[in-house]
Amino acid sequence: LKWDAIDFDQNTITIRHTVTSCDLDGKRVLVASDTTKTKSSMRTLPLVPFMRERLLTLKEEQQENRRLCGRSYIKDYLEYVCVNEIGDLIKPHYVTESFPKLLKAKGMRQIRYHDLRHSCASLLLANGVPMKQIQEWLGHSDFSTTANIYAHLDYSSKLTSADAMLNGLGFAQN
User: Fold this and answer.
1) Closest-CA residue to 14 (of 38, 47, 39)
2) Tag placement on the chain: N or C end, fewer CB within 10 Å?
3) pLDDT of residue 172
4) Residue 167: burial class (beta carbons within 10 Å; 0-12, 13-18, 19+)
5) Which residues, 6 or more positions from 149, have their beta carbon under 8 angstroms from its beta carbon?
6) Which residue, among 116, 113, 62, 102, has the nearest Cα to 85 in the 3D structure?
7) What digits encode the pLDDT tens for the residues 81-97?
8) What pLDDT score was predicted for residue 153?
9) In terms of Cα–Cα distance, which of 8, 20, 16 is closest to 44?
């Protein structure tokens, strides 16, 4: 995430840049791109108040770290949100590799970092968010992808549909 993808006036975050790592000739190399996996992966999401405040605080912390470190501060990644105290980019694999340690330290069940997307979708669905909106939130390019993965979780909407049919046919239970 780059700072210019965050609009603090409109309270939005636009997903439009990716940084990945790959092994090339035995060396891990970063690949940055102003594109996303698919066109639908490029999306604008609301910046909720909690995250807005956290990001503003982080921006101030980065400015203070830059002041304190002076010429030692790494200036190659000034436009990025996820940098460490000396300005070096937090590598993409860091989060994935650190996540199991965090779960263990908190006494939580082990899951893959990517499974958080599924948890998010499941919570949205359980709270009545329509499947189409979940597709857009997750950035799936095709509605059927979202529907195929999460349809089995949408049981409560099936109950609502069944009740609507019973009511429409005059078989509603009082």
Assistant:
1) 47
2) C
3) 67
4) exposed
5) 118, 121
6) 62
7) 999 999 999 998 888 89
8) 58
9) 16
DSSP 89: B
CB 54 within 8 A of CB 68: no
CA distances, 157 to each of 146, 152, 153, 160, 162 (Å): 16, 11, 9, 5, 9
29-69 residue pLDDT tens: 888 888 877 776 788 888 999 999 999 999 999 999 999 99
DSSP string, 103-166: HHHTTPPP--TTHHHHHHHHHHHHTT--HHHHHHHHT-SSHHHHHHHHGGG-HHHHHHHHHHHH
In this predicted structure, the answer to whether residue 155 has a pLDDT above a threshold of 60 is: no
End-to-end CA distance of the chain: 53
Report angle CA 110, 53, 33 to the nearest 5 degrees: 65
Question: What is the structure's pLDDT at 174?
Answer: 57
Cβ count within 10 A of residue 166:
12
State how far the Cα of 174 lies from the Cα of 168, in Å rounded to an integer.
Answer: 14
Sequence letter at residue 90: I
Quick check: 19 and 90 in contact, CB under 8 A?
no
> Tokens at residue 133, please?
């909106």
